[in-house]
Amino acid sequence: TKLTDAYIGKGIVINTSTPAQVAATVASIWTGLIRDGLIDAYGTKFDPSTGEVPISAVQDSIEPTRINVTGSVRFLYPLNYIDVTFFIYV
Questions:
Q1: Which tens digit of pLDDT belongs to each residue from 56-74?
Q2: Calpha distance 13→76 (Å, rounded)
Q3: Which H or E element spans position 41?
């Protein structure tokens, strides 16, 4: 919902900085989830031993109005990081 509120229907034209803006928005949302006690952490580096993957966002090469986002989150239970992949149309 927060990504939709920030990007959908806003008339945003995707440029070279848009994927980084989307990644920063996702980081902000996930930071809020940490603060609210819903997740323990999100990925900030590549660590194959834990599955940690940093947030990345790229413009889709086939559908240029789509931003593909990947990252990982670690829930409160003693688990490794879980991959998260989604997309948003801008």
A1: 999 999 999 999 999 999 9
A2: 37
A3: strand 41-42
